[in-house]
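Hi there. Long-time user, first ticket. I'm pasting a complex I've been working with (about 384 residues overall). I'd like to know whether the download I got is complete or cut off, because the file seemed smaller than I expected. Thanks.
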Amino acid sequence: MKKADIDKILKKYDYKKSSLISILQDLQVINRWLPQETLKYVSEKMDISLMDVYSLVTFYKSFSLKPRGKHIITACSGTACHVRGGPKVLSELENQLGITVGETTPDKNFTLETVRCLGACALGPLVVVDGKYYGQMNPKKVASTLKKYSKKK
Amino acid sequence: MIEMTIDGLDVQVEEGSSILDVAQFYGIPVPTLCHHDGLTDYGACRLCIVEIGKGDNTKLVSSCTYPAELGLFVRTNSKRVVEARKVLVELLLAMCPSSKTIQDLAAAMEVTKVRFKVEQGDCVLCGLCVRMCAEQMDAKAIGFVNRGKDRKITTPFDIKSDVCRTCGACIYICPACELRCQGPGPPGDVCGSCANVLPVCLEDEDDKMCFLGTCGWCYKELGRKKNKEKE
Ligand code: FES
Ligand code: FES
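Hi, the file is complete. Here it is re-exported in full:
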């Protein structure tokens, strides 16, 4: 991540300490994850201890300290989605991608994550890819959904 | 000054003090683990719970974080408090059975066995070291990371921190990672020896001195003296 990019975002929020979460969110958009150096730079520039920044980043699941793929797949494992067959969809996703939850495919195209309820239980089982909701999922639909995001051969 | 009642005693206390401050000022023993005089209170261990309110409308609060209020009615030793405390200390023991501090607290509350699955952990997440590092050492080298069951105390990125001066204050204040209580039982046993095996207390002997802090025995002795006074 370029320092200039970080500075731009910091300036946008006027280095306000209370905006730390928003700043980190914006930073994460650039690379889809937060590298160690970025966090160090932010903590120095904003005069917030690195420990506080790190505590915050590890507290919220939406921040990632590991490189993530181009497309982020979030399978819901909330109660409603669970009883509607969420686990089956998840294991099918794992099978087809060849990775387990929290991992990224070797070609850096997909990262698989889970979430506890997205507040759209009526649509369950729910899978979200890059912010787009795919409701009423079942193991059969997984392949076609993934195909939309697969790298063109 | 505000007026309140603690254990049936009408007291006047300074504004801004916590219930724990009041109890300690008036010499009412309240067990604590995560409280330290030089650090801000954090309310992690819950051992200092007291019951506030009257009649049916009572609740348990952690006295170290609850401010003294006008007309507050506090009981530090009600049945509900004592029972809840026992469970709490049992849970702490299950997490860190080798800690002498916790063993002594348990002995003082007459907890003799742990009914939960015992984990040989070395941290109860009391946050003393975190506050020590931040407030007294002004370093903020360690802190809480993750949340829920994954919560733990470590340095940023789990590597040696640039700001840590290896002063050791965190180790000094830790109630859990100290040397294992050298009781006769196997590690993890709730031996309570310090409180139950005779003779431990050197109080009665003129030519010897006790180097231990307040141990379970002292509490017991205290209780016994109190009972005698009552009789
Ligand atoms: S449980 Fe999946 S959206 Fe609520
Ligand atoms: S001393 Fe009050 S919660 Fe630990």
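A couple of notes from our side: Residues 92 and 133 of chain A are 18 Å apart (CA to CA). The longest strand of chain A covers residues 71-76.
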